[in-house]
Amino acid sequence: MKENKLYREVVVVADDFTGANDAGVSLALSGKKVSVAFQLPFREATDALIINTDSRALLASDAAKNIAQLGPDIVNARWLVKKIDSTLRGNVGAETKALQVLSNKRQIIFAPAYPAAGRITQQGKCLVNGKPVNETEFASDPKTPVPSANLADLFTDLTGKAITLHTLEAELAQGTELLIVDAATDDDLDAIIAAALTCTQMPLLVGSAGLCDALARHLAPARHKQLLAVVGSMSEVAQHQIALIQKASGVSSVVIDVEDILQGKTTGYLTQIAQALEAGHHCIVHTCPDHNARYQIERLCQRYQLTRAALGETICAFLGELTRHVLDAETPDALYVSGGDVAMAVAKSLEAQGFEITGRIARCVPYGKFLGCAWLRPVMTKAGGFGTAETLLEVLHFIEERLSD
């Protein structure tokens, strides 16, 4: 067989198709390219390769032979996972041993818990909704009955040691071959992944979809929450707030030229805002580039034969529609609108029917959510002249540190 030299960040070996999908879905949701292979060798580039050996109901010796054929497709994996059924059905011990031999892994972490499905490990035993698994329906499974809840009973060729999280890192450091780790929560599974990272050689991970989910959480790229701020106010207070926040890292500013609005030259602004958000930045959209801009209003009114009220309505309507188009295309974590007329124009463009107040930030920024429209994420509003120079920065910190998903 020709060797497969493609690098895989993660290789998961599952014993049936649905289990393979369960193992891979959280990795896919974390942004990884995930492929499930029915046949080997698998030549396509992928971040995570999920191999389905379809061996759950085979004799243990035949299942082990299937594992032994996988060499070229697992050799370059940084993370190697033997995905098992959370109720211990199948050939867990035989397949784990075969995969350890094939991969030359010195240590194995065995953590079959799947808390989200009611399956936990306690004192070295598998419990399903609080009962030992051999006292549930899985004990009489038609194809792969489970005779024991004691996890060490699964391994005839490995010496297992049941431990708690408190001693996991110490046991890894001592070189203990098979560690059967209690876990009752997702936080426990996250801690197991963290402990694996302390090893010189990454251990073979053996577990259910719960452990795969924990690995996906570890591998998911860090993402900071994003704010889209639309500031229509030309007050000096608002300008001080914008000037200060522009000095913060991860903040992009898009200045809307009022003359572009009046001349209908507005096509590029949506692209600028989208690029800022897609780059992971907070985006501040405003119409007043400097202190002097507010003194040009009379000139603009005369040039375009508009009253001040009509000019304001035109600007607000544009900002409302621009915000709607941005939110149709992008998903910032929160929306901030400064200036009462602008806030109302945004609400109108989004077809909001009302506003539910939840709380307040920095003493002058009520926040909540629009009612009756498609935008369901938090909305912050502020009168243009309210607050201090730090107000918008405080809103930013609230978004990044305190806003829940």
Automatic annotation (TrEMBL):
<keyword id="KW-0418">Kinase</keyword>
<dbReference type="InterPro" id="IPR031475">
    <property type="entry name" value="NBD_C"/>
</dbReference>
<comment type="similarity">
    <text>Belongs to the four-carbon acid sugar kinase family.</text>
</comment>
<protein>
    <submittedName>
        <fullName>Uncharacterized conserved protein YgbK, DUF1537 family</fullName>
    </submittedName>
</protein>
<dbReference type="InterPro" id="IPR010737">
    <property type="entry name" value="4-carb_acid_sugar_kinase_N"/>
</dbReference>
<keyword id="KW-0808">Transferase</keyword>
<keyword id="KW-0547">Nucleotide-binding</keyword>
<dbReference type="InterPro" id="IPR042213">
    <property type="entry name" value="NBD_C_sf"/>
</dbReference>
<dbReference type="Pfam" id="PF07005">
    <property type="entry name" value="SBD_N"/>
</dbReference>
<dbReference type="Pfam" id="PF17042">
    <property type="entry name" value="NBD_C"/>
</dbReference>
<dbReference type="GO" id="GO:0016301">
    <property type="term" value="F:kinase activity"/>
</dbReference>
<feature type="domain" description="Four-carbon acid sugar kinase nucleotide binding">
    <location>
        <begin position="228"/>
        <end position="392"/>
    </location>
</feature>
<dbReference type="GO" id="GO:0005524">
    <property type="term" value="F:ATP binding"/>
</dbReference>
<feature type="domain" description="Four-carbon acid sugar kinase N-terminal">
    <location>
        <begin position="11"/>
        <end position="215"/>
    </location>
</feature>
<dbReference type="InterPro" id="IPR037051">
    <property type="entry name" value="4-carb_acid_sugar_kinase_N_sf"/>
</dbReference>
<keyword id="KW-0067">ATP-binding</keyword>
<keyword id="KW-0119">Carbohydrate metabolism</keyword>
